[in-house]
Amino acid sequence: MSKQDYMNTSVQEPPLDYSFKSIHVVQDLVSEEPRTGLRPLKHSKSGKSLTQSLWLNNNVLSDLRDFTQVVSQLLEHPENLAWIDLSFNDLTSIDPVLTTLFNLSVLYLHGNSIHRLGEVSKLAVLPRLRSLTLHGNPIEEEKGYRQYVLCSLPRITTFDFSGVTKSDRTTAEVWKRMNIKPKKTHIKENAL
Questions:
Q1: Which pLDDT band holds residue 170 (cuts at 50, 70, 90)?
Q2: Which of 41, 55, 138, 192 has fewest C-beta within 10 Å?
């Protein structure tokens, strides 16, 4: 990797945009042409995109099988992915592959079929995640949806396109104390 390639890898670059392509499986991205925007995508000498944004919204993806392998073929620096739009697909869970993208700061998952609220806690390992969308998933109907997400992901600043306020944080903490039992710690009797 040349220093110039690394310097050109930027969120300001247009996204690698595969939205509205009727993509069923991630592997299809390799043979599909991305949409072209107003500004052309920059590429490395090897022909891979230098963007940090990947848009896969409005497709029919039900899982992210082969995601790491495919993204490595498309992006010069897949480890720098900062924004992924997976909204309006058929995802039923938060794939563990998303938890390996430590530079991810924006993740759109709205309009999918995620039905277990506990899935959200997988994202707690992402240190830079600041913006997340989950509305339009079955989990949105669960009691305490917003509070659970804010408790599980204390670093996010925007949730479902709404800013997270101090009041939201306070409400989430109160909700947590009332609804999430702390893990019991067992003390051995002879240790006392």
A1: very high
A2: 192
